[in-house]
Structure formats: C-alpha cells, structure tokens
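Input (structure):
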C-alpha cells in the first residue's frame, strides 16, 4: 500500500458496503503517514455527499485512521472543547488518490467531558439487511465498539490528553 507524505493534501473517500460513494472530504493535510497510521488535519473543508449536496466543515479537525482497526476518529476542535466523532468502518487504504474506507453506519460521539453516545444503531440494522453485511463483519464491528469504549475510558490514542493539541500545532505549521 502507498504511504502519503507529510504535508501532502489528500481527499478522504467514505464508501458504503455496496461500493457506492458515501461522502468525500475535499482536502486534508497529512500530518503523519505510515503503513499503519494516517493522521490528518483540516479546517473549513468542502464535503460532498452521495447525492451531490455540499457543505463546509465548521471547525478545525484532526483525523485518525488505522490500517488494522475497524474505526476512524475525527477530533473536532470547538470553543467549548474537543468533540470526537468515531466512525465504525473498515481499516483505511491509501492509493495515491485518497484515504478510503467503508463506513458501517455505527458511530460513537464523544463529548469534551469524555461521556459518549452510540449512534445510528437503527441505520446499521437497516443497511445490514439491505446490503447483506456478513456475520463476520457484525462480530468485528461489535469488538471494535468495545475497543473504542475502552480507548475512551482509558484516554488512549486520540483521546489522550495532549494528542489533539500536539497534532493541531503541527497542522498549523503546515498552513503557514
């Protein structure tokens, strides 16, 4: 698999299990790129939905992708603290065009006080039937929900106290 270089602007492509595009983030700056981990940063980037609608993100964000974990984490920097949006997804791939993954509907929203909510269980059930998610995917996703909850409670990975601040500082140096 290709590895994006630090400072490179890349797109992020989210797909659904049936192979259809779900969402595209126009630009994210690579802050760290290895075979296993990509950390990116963006601010006010255009997002295109599958139906062609577009919108602009409202705040700076640090994005964490892993090639072996079935989730990615978007850390949104807001005035009242850091909010985390965790997508249960396939591990990422990078192919010189974009960071790509399959979105599996389930999400965990984490608030600045580290309380969290599991979201979109109904959407997951509907898409599971509609697109025929195999049982093995269901098991993997449940294991990764549990892993994410452990990371949140243990303040591990992107939930560690200085993670977002350190990567946001690096992002700002690339923007200058």
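Output (sequence):
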């Amino acid at each position: 698999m290709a590895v994006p270089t630090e400072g490179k602007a890349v797109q992020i492509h989210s797909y659904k299990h049936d192979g259809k595009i779900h969402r595209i983030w126009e630009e994210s700056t690579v802050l760290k790129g290895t075979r296993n981990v990509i950390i990116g940063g963006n601010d006010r980037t255009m997002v295109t939905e599958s139906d062609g609608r577009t919108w602009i993100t409202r705040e700076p964000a640090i994005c964490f992708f892993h090639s072996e974990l079935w989730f990615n984490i978007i850390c949104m920097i807001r005035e009242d603290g850091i909010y985390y949006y965790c997508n249960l997804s396939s591990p990422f791939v990078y192919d010189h065009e974009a960071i790509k993954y399959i979105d599996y509907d389930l999400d965990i929203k984490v608030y600045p006080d580290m309380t969290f909510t599991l979201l979109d269980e109904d959407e997951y059930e509907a898409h599971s039937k509609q697109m025929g998610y195999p049982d093995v995917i269901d098991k993997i996703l449940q294991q990764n929900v549990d892993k994410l909850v452990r990371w949140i409670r243990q303040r591990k990975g992107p939930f560690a106290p200085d993670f977002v601040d350190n990567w946001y500082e690096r992002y700002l140096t690339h923007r200058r």
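Notes: The longest helix spans residues 135-154. The first strand starts at residue 9 and ends at 15.
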